[in-house]
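ugh ok so i messed up the first submission bc i forgot one of the chains. this is the corrected input, ALL of the components this time, i swear. 1814 residues overall. if the numbers dont match what u have on ur side tell me asap before i send this to the collaborators (the ones from the other lab, u know who)
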Amino acid sequence: MTTVTNRPTTPPLSTQLVYRFGDGSAEGDGSMRDLLGGKGAGLAEMSGLGVPVPPGFTITTEVCNAFYALGRRYPGGLEEQVRRGIAHVEKSVGARFGDPDNPLLVSVRSGARVSMPGMMDTILNLGLNEEAAEGLARRSGRPRFAYDSYRRFIQMYGDVVLGVRKASDEDPDPFEALLARKREAAGVKEDMQLDAEALRALVQDYKALVREHTGAEFPSDPWQQLWGAIAAVLRSWESARAVVYRNMYGYPADWGTAVTVQAMVFGNLGDDCATGVVFTRNPSTGAHHRFGEFLVNAQGEDVVAGTRTPQPFLESARLPESPASLETSMPGPFAEIERACERLEQHFADMQDIEFTIQEGKLWILQTRSGKRTGQAMVKIAVDMVDEGLIDEDEAVRRIDAEQLNELLHPVFAANAKREVVAKGLAAAPGAAVGRVVFTPADAVDSAMRGEQVILVREETSPEDIEGMKEARAFLTARGGTSSHAAVVARGMGKCCVTGCSALRIDYARRHFTVESKSHGLVVVNEGDVISLDGSSGEVMLGALPLAEPVLPAEYERLMVWVDERRHLRVRANADTPQDAERARGFGAEGIGLCRTEHMFFGPDRILAVRQMILSQSEAERREALAKILPMQREDFIGILRAMAGYPVTIRLLDPPLHEFLPQTVDDIADLSRALGMRIDEVKRRVDALHEFNPMLGHRGVRLAITFPEIYEVQVRAVIEAACELRAEQLQVAPEIMIPLVGLERELERLRELVLRVAEEVLDERGIRIEYAVGTMIELPRACIVADRIAEHADFFSFGTNDLTQTTFGLSRDDAARFLPVYMTQHVIERDPFVELDRDGVGALVRIGIERGRSTKPGLKVGICGEHGGNPASVVFCHEQAFDYVSCSPYRVPIARVAAAQAALAG
Amino acid sequence: MTTVTNRPTTPPLSTQLVYRFGDGSAEGDGSMRDLLGGKGAGLAEMSGLGVPVPPGFTITTEVCNAFYALGRRYPGGLEEQVRRGIAHVEKSVGARFGDPDNPLLVSVRSGARVSMPGMMDTILNLGLNEEAAEGLARRSGRPRFAYDSYRRFIQMYGDVVLGVRKASDEDPDPFEALLARKREAAGVKEDMQLDAEALRALVQDYKALVREHTGAEFPSDPWQQLWGAIAAVLRSWESARAVVYRNMYGYPADWGTAVTVQAMVFGNLGDDCATGVVFTRNPSTGAHHRFGEFLVNAQGEDVVAGTRTPQPFLESARLPESPASLETSMPGPFAEIERACERLEQHFADMQDIEFTIQEGKLWILQTRSGKRTGQAMVKIAVDMVDEGLIDEDEAVRRIDAEQLNELLHPVFAANAKREVVAKGLAAAPGAAVGRVVFTPADAVDSAMRGEQVILVREETSPEDIEGMKEARAFLTARGGTSSHAAVVARGMGKCCVTGCSALRIDYARRHFTVESKSHGLVVVNEGDVISLDGSSGEVMLGALPLAEPVLPAEYERLMVWVDERRHLRVRANADTPQDAERARGFGAEGIGLCRTEHMFFGPDRILAVRQMILSQSEAERREALAKILPMQREDFIGILRAMAGYPVTIRLLDPPLHEFLPQTVDDIADLSRALGMRIDEVKRRVDALHEFNPMLGHRGVRLAITFPEIYEVQVRAVIEAACELRAEQLQVAPEIMIPLVGLERELERLRELVLRVAEEVLDERGIRIEYAVGTMIELPRACIVADRIAEHADFFSFGTNDLTQTTFGLSRDDAARFLPVYMTQHVIERDPFVELDRDGVGALVRIGIERGRSTKPGLKVGICGEHGGNPASVVFCHEQAFDYVSCSPYRVPIARVAAAQAALAG
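and heres the new structure output, hopefully the right one now
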């Protein structure tokens, strides 16, 4: 006995087992997905609207349950209802099952209430046999089409229903093997080149193959074909693949599958036939006019194949040399399509993407769905539909795919550009860039000074590359994932970035990289060569592709007003420079949630002092070096606080391990030894002594301040002095000083004391009072667990979910690229946890952290400043957990605003 | 007004404010610590037992509270009671306060209910003034002693009571400055060399200093001196240091401090005087005889100073040439001491360490406390006392300091050995070792083959050093903490280890290390030089110190029977080889809780195949290399399972990142390229490509198995084949296969499927059934959080608290040495979380993991296999959390057994 998964007792069977549709009416409707499956319900809905869909009927999911309850037998009454269903279809299209002159052909499809891989594929052209094929050839005048349809039907039915398939993974598909032999015999390379005779002979070979495998003739009786297909659909519900899939998503076995049987229609039976696609609005621009194309005497696949040039749908869209539009060449069906478009768009209140076929002058609508659109069209359509009264403002906000707003915010390649893709990496930061290749940050700076646009190509980047990264247009790295240093910096700066492009072999010494590509063989790209990078697809291309500037449609501003009216979460930006801060304000940021002070340490005017500070052997030496850094840090903070005047600015004190600031190469170490007047071997020894095995878990964050408190003292002084200067200019400033990597209550207790002591000292010196806050990153599991105690010393919590994800999973984001893709392909994990916050693990710790933190301080301000702050699903989580704000890179601020509004609307 | 910490309303004051003791009776007793402080209660207890303690009295802690409640004034009635107290003392010792001929001198001490740094030090010799000093000189015939006592009294009182002290940290102490000037004037180097006249003059200088600082004469009236000292003790309760300390430990302000005033007695007033120390039993061996020494006509500090050779307490302990014993020279006081010893040991039911003074033939007992003892004595005394009916078996088990059992289990240096300490590192693994210095694992192997004992000295060790580490007697590293690789391996192997010895400058090229030591200047230690290493103290010594072999006393076995009868937790060992497994059995291990398979991969006969496997580019290549490893792994498992027949053995599949197995130096890479017939640059490229930024969070554990399932397949096959072979010999085997680093439910689901598939395949081939289990390490915060889901696929959980501590704290144990010592010194954290499980953070996650795991599977077997499994405090935690077992290094198995029994007794 085959194993059947446990199922509850089946409820008593309804008397109606089959629901018919077509002829402008239907027995079911779109609300009946549970009973009719997604497809069946959709077809019923369209038909009920009076849209001309090819007639058919759906066998309910209850039948599926009954089928298993009865030991894989059909319930009584089904046969009769199916018979009536076929009669309805025959009547509607004027053809008959098995009629050699005008055979009715049908498709049979499975359909659960949700789309589910692992179940049966569609069977097309059911009803064909020798006579019917002959009849179809005669009627269409295209025998090749008739026999190709027939051989495809046998192949599909033979595989899915009769189980004629390869014995093991190593074997070839038996039908494909016969097809290949035919091609060889005919001396052709493509199936398309086989003529009607060859296909007719192939049909005989196929039938012999079926006979050999099953010991029986391929069924020629359409009824026998139909019942075989229905049984195959029902059996597929308990196939191994479907069961695995159901278990993975927790779908119960008693949902069952429906079976939809529908008349086939053909757009290729003559010149009064056509097939095409129409959008109810322009999916590129969102403009309110139809947008579509069609081919006379063709099947749907001809439109896709691109061998013939499609004709425009509207006359107004016709170019001077193009063939006639549907509007002028088939005005009757055109008018009918117009009506269907209007009805469907009104009904679904969204722009529709509609497939249609015209058979012998009669229009059939095959499918309608919400149309895919560009970000620009998405915004325009949503706003237009509010103006048209189709949807309200809430719905317009809900309609926005927040992630897709990216398209509006970054430059893109022109859609029609020819792409010579030589390698593909991870799409780490969206946008498009064209530039000359450079291999070192110093070269990036030099080239930028010469006014050149460059793309920085590295094995990976590190914080000391930051100056060069500022100057480059984009980054391409051979290693690292979508959360690697390059990726994070790129998204922060709004630059395009491709990471983990493992095909790259970079030779720094020869200043080139090579890549072995299938299409181009071995390609050598030298320093100075121009490449194009698509950060949204991960593609690397040779030469300069044309760029298209993003246009923020007028509707965008209107939409964002509705968005901001609805959201509760505040949205801040992560920004380290006055330029970033200004950009963030432009995108609507309401403050800075994360200002990383270490990026400032890499400036060419200060890195030497920073290195001197790090290599100091005593507190006195260290203070001397820090004294040089203080005025520069103060200027940094003045710039940022000024750009964000009136808004809160959270400044994180120094976080990375000190060795990140030190040179690593022999030459750089020699330079440093000269600059500091220190012996080379002594510099080298000190640099080596700072090496760490796991820098992520090393001497960084608050740990630096416990061992070298003078570093944070100087930073706090710089912040408060900056605030005082701006306050003297009557500007509103609200610095929030944030201590990173706290895991122990006493760490924050000590540092809070330090901050207060230094701040009060400065304020006393200046005789000024300003408001400032002291808080902490919550980015370690331990911090979440003891958040109640940490909260005693914190004015705010900012969840650093990048590091919290790393520690909760024990997963280095710099190293994850080696296995995370395999995890995702194999569904060990569904989503990259560095992109979308892992609710079950990291999220649970965040919840604990908030609960405990607010148990100590009910009004504790809570934010998030990891990359997740700009990920829509994660923003929803933050809303649910009553965060006060999210903070993300400036370019993602609009995305976070939309996601926050949607979360608020969702409840 | 001085800030006073908040205190609740003081309860009404008792009428008795002063409790007297002495003359064989006392008004209080040992139970009154809250009222009399620890010291006062102890003295009352002794006095109440009839032991002759110098008489005195204690002012209660209630007085302290009243003092603050009254705005720093004494409560009514105190003066009168203190007067009566002094009268009691005068009467008891026959001397009088301020009597020039026979002055009563007293000590004044603070005493809270717990010992508390930050409060006032003792003031001695209170009551001295010009006349009394003169009288003391006459009476003792030792004017130098009299004036030295007087000048010390002024110095102490001047500082503590009158506040005469240096103005800033940079200044010298003003009293010490005067003393130094006197030494200069006299042309001597030591205070001891100043004669009576010089000291008498110094007293005048001291008085002038006090006059200058305070504007008043140094008080000569003993009563004025006494009230000044009492007030100083009471004020010290609210000193800044005491308040900080109280807040740190959460001690309430209203505990208050008591003040104890006690007569001074002198052992140096003539030849009928003496001072000494006696233990009621031998603290080295535990033998039941007194053990002590004394000096005639001496003070306590003379015994300590070692300028005179002390005389033995017992005649039987006298060596032929030594001076007379107390037993023969002062039979009267000796008999009195004997009675006191008997009474105190019976009373406290523990071996006592007693200080005594004989003044003019009269015995005074100054102090008694439980005596420190060796591990051996600890065990013998506990068992003997059960036999003597002093304590019961439960109490004997409670008495054991589990950690101290270490002394019994490792070799130690002879107690009398002269130590030339040149450097000190962290005491990473206990024991003592002597050996020649080598700097490379290869040299360790070579030397061992020549039969030499060597100590491996490295910057730090790594897994590829394992073969050399096996051959070395001990390890000394310049970097790394007490949980570094070297430390963990050492404890596992029962070897001695000192880590983080940062004074070492290792020069591999010149094959020496240098160390700059205060005592020895610059010391160069060359390869081949002999050093001695004390892993219990962290000391590094030149030359060969004599070693003492540990002796397991007969009482040990009896004790451990009581221990095992009481504990609920099972104790297993972490063991990777048959030798380790046998040793573990010898120490009483009830199975293996962690068998690390990677250590087997480093064997010289297999590392090549392992490297070939790692550098494979395809599954086929990898399988080919694995096929070579399979039979070797099978033999490993046969050995271990055989040694543990009848007990469970948990085998952890491959855990470390693969690059740990690869060579890193140019030479080793060249060797490998020859061995594998691969180009050097290709080997180098592949080695580089496997580099990770944070290997701890990288491609390791179950992640290896998700990407390369064939590795675990081969390991599972080796385990099950080994089990089958032993089963064929009728041996009981119970392998438990453990998957490391699981953080996602599906990881374990997949791997459980893999293990079951391979295991059943092998069992089918062999036609044998054996029991085996599949479980997982819980070592990531996420695993704790989703333990309910992970438990669905696990037969057992083993908490890997090493890694769980690393991830919960975000703290690399290899890098923590850089700041953790500062954290501990500054009390940011109290205990090294890699030594003692952090209850608040890591412990909370463990609790969540167990709760959720057992919510899915109530009977889920739960163990721990981190280093904490051998730490007594952590074992108590495991007992409380209802673990089934703990697992630790073989040498710590007895410790864990004792800790488990103590935990069971405690609750």
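quick check: Chain B touches chain A through 47 residues (CB under 8 Å). that seems consistent at least. Confidence is low (pLDDT under 50) at residues 1-8 of chain B.
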